[in-house]
């Protein structure tokens, strides 16, 4: 392993965390620290990082003291520390407690005031209105109004229903029959059945009820960006998801993405991020509305997305952009993605069966033939027998899940 004058610390253990550890290894040949409560499947049996497991680390009462202890242990006069959150709740806790870590962490995070303008979807839509960004017609439902919310609906079924923040600690740790990350309903009775189950749980957050924008998974779009410590956007990558996941707990997560380029949406989002004073990584989910030719924004997340390694399929490196800026004080011009590549988190057999658009299907086959395909968890520098077996089981689980849960959104 090589030695550098910085230490990356990754918070989390999901696909996003593994993808970032992989990027760090590929780029710098060093091991980051990985801090988490427990290892999830994507990071199990990996040799890419040094693990620090902390009971209750994802809890707001334990996080600041535990992270401060790690930072103080590794602080050195000639070493800069860069912290990379891989979930909304880690990113939010870094923002809320940043003053405790000042002088120990070299990258900045958004202010608590800015986070408070978009940490739930209803707040984000108010921000969209202020800055002229498009979003779907929406009802924001308070907990006590769940049973009657559809009475004010001025759009037709099908509808999409989501918690105000599906990645927030409160929703992730709630439990009720039929729980999903996002719900699709074709009738009022389907909606009410879910609400009655939710009302028996301890989840007290708002619900977001939206018109369904026509189109399947391939109408979705995602932009990952890096904004430097001065709030200037330095890198942006656009992806077209060609398939989403369908298992209840991961419904709506991206299963495969082809990288794209669209200068108009890049400039629009770049202007927005710079005007609100955004710093750090951002992940914006949206859907292309073929009726209007507009991108309808759904949410912004203050970290790289779970599928963030898709950026590397476009030949770009978000981690290098961060390190160049905060460690080596480089201020490069903003780079937009231009190259086409495929990132996938599922086996080729799943893509062959469930991507039914002929044009996309042919493009995927061509990208495989040209060897322009990137799989997050299959990294040849990190393949021991236990990990290979675990990834094989992980891939088989995807095949089973699609067989059990797939439905058409067209």
Report on this model:
The protein is of the alpha/beta class. The chain has three domains: 6-109, NAD(P)-binding Rossmann-like Domain (Rossmann fold); 137-211, Dna Ligase, domain 1, CATH 3.30.1490; 217-405, D-amino Acid Aminotransferase, Chain A, domain 1 (2-Layer Sandwich), CATH 3.30.470.20. Helix content is 33%, strand content 22%. The chain contains 14 helices and 16 strands. It has helices spanning 15-28, 63-74, 88-96, 98-101, 112-115, 121-131, 169-172, 188-198, 263-275, 310-313, 318-326, 348-354, 358-369, 385-405; strands spanning 6-11, 33-36, 50-53, 80-85, 138-141, 159-163, 183-185, 207-211, 220-227, 233-244, 254-260, 280-289, 294-301, 335-336, 342-344, 373-375. The strands form three sheets. Strands 9, 10, 11, 12, 13, 14, 15 and 16 form an eight-stranded mixed β-sheet that branches. The protein has a four-stranded parallel β-sheet with strand order 3-2-1-4. Strands 5-8-6-7 form a four-stranded antiparallel β-sheet, with helices on one face. Strand 12 (280-289) and strand 13 form a beta hairpin. It is globular and about 60 Å long. The protein starts with 5 loop residues before the first strand and ends in a 5-residue tail after the last helix.
């Amino acid at each position: 392993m090589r030695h550098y004058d910085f230490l990356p610390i990754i918070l989390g253990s999901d696909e996003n965390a593994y993808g970032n550890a992989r990027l760090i290894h590929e780029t710098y040949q060093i091991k980051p620290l990985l801090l988490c409560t427990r290892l999830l499947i994507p990071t199990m049996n990996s040799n890419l990082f040094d693990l620090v497991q902390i009971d209750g680390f994802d809890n707001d009462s334990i996080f600041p003291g535990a992270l401060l202890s790690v930072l103080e242990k590794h602080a050195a006069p000639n070493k800069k520390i860069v912290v990379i959150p891989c979930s909304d709740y880690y990113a939010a806790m870094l923002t809320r407690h940043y003053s405790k870590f000042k002088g120990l962490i070299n990258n900045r995070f958004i202010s608590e005031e800015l986070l408070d303008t978009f940490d739930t979807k209803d707040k984000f839509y108010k921000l969209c209105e202020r800055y002229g960004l498009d979003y779907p017609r929406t009802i924001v439902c308070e907990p006590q109004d769940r049973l009657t919310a559809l009475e004010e609906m001025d759009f037709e079924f099908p509808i999409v229903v989501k918690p105000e923040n599906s990645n927030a600690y409160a929703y992730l740790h709630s439990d009720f029959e039929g729980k999903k990350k996002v719900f699709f309903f074709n009738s009022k009775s389907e909606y009410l059945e879910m609400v009655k189950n939710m009302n028996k749980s301890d989840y007290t957050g708002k619900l977001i009820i939206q018109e369904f924008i026509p189109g399947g998974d391939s109408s979705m779009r995602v932009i990952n960006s890096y904004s430097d410590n001065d709030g200037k956007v330095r890198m942006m990558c656009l992806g077209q998801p060609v398939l989403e996941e369908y298992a209840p707990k991961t419904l709506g997560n991206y299963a495969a993405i082809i990288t794209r380029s669209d200068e108009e949406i890049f400039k629009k989002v770049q202007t927005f991020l710079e005007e609100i004073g955004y710093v750090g990584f951002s992940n914006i989910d949206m859907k292309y509305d073929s009726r209007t030719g507009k991108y309808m924004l759904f949410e912004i997340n203050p970290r790289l997305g779970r599928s963030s390694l898709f950026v590397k399929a476009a030949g770009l490196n978000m981690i290098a952009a961060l390190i160049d800026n905060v460690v080596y004080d480089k201020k490069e011009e903003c780079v937009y993605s231009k190259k086409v590549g495929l990132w996938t988190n599922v086996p080729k057999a799943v893509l062959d069966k469930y991507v039914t658009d002929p044009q996309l299907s042919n493009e995927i086959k061509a990208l495989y033939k040209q060897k322009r395909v990137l799989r997050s968890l299959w990294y040849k520098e990190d393949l021991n027998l236990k990990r290979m077996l675990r990834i094989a089981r992980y891939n088989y689980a995807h095949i089973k899940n699609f067989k059990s849960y797939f439905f058409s959104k067209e």
